[in-house]
Amino acid sequence: MQNQKGVMLDWVRKVHQEKMLDLLVDQDLGPHYDRIEVAEMVQVTLLCTQFQPSHRPKMSEVVRMLEGDGLAEKWEATNRPAAEAPVHDALGYDQRNDSNGSVFFNDYYHENDSSLSSDEARSIDTVEEMELSGPR
């Protein structure tokens, strides 16, 4: 089953690279769909299905991308050649390419920030956890 998922993702990546996204859309829709929206959803999907879970965007980033905020910048940053990529992007991610040429994100933020005390770092962790857990 896991191998089938990998094959499907490889196919979607290829379809995306070849700009043949119509292959991913239900044929019953005919021309009645937004091509730009399909392209954006495929980009979000590819960002969210990277091999290493720690390389995937956070759920809060995914929500923002789905709402139309930041996807273009995130996608551009992931597809920049490694030599041109900054060490850390604006969201605090270290950008690297894996051996397949797929780009992923390494969680970086406050654990690499030597200017934060351990209490400040724990405080940031608590705030992030509360934001993700929602109302009780």
What value does the Rg take, in angstroms? 17 Å
Structural class: mainly alpha
The tally of strands reads 2
> Reading side by side through the largest sheet, how are the strands ordered?
1-2
Number of DSSP helical runs: 5
Count of separate structural domains: 1
Q: Per DSSP, what share of the residues sits in E-state strands of 2 or more residues? A: 5-15%
- Are there runs of 5+ residues with pLDDT below 50, and where? 85-116, 120-132
Keywords: ATP-binding, Kinase, Nucleotide-binding, Transferase
InterPro entries: CR_Ser/Thr_kinase (IPR052059), Kinase-like_dom_sf (IPR011009)
GO molecular function, one term: ATP binding
Short description:
With about 140 residues, the chain is mostly helical. The protein has 5 helices and 2 strands, in the order H-H-H-H-E-E-H.
Q: What do you see in this structure?
A:
With 136 residues, the protein is mainly alpha-helical. Helix content is 46%, strand content 7%. It contains five helices and two strands; from the N terminus they run ααααββα. It has helices at 2-17, 35-48, 59-66, 71-79, 118-133, and strands at 93-97, 103-107. Strand 1 (93-97) and strand 2 (103-107) form a beta hairpin. GO terms for molecular function: ATP binding; kinase activity. Residues 112-125 have a biased composition (Basic and acidic residues). Residues 112-136 are annotated as: Disordered.
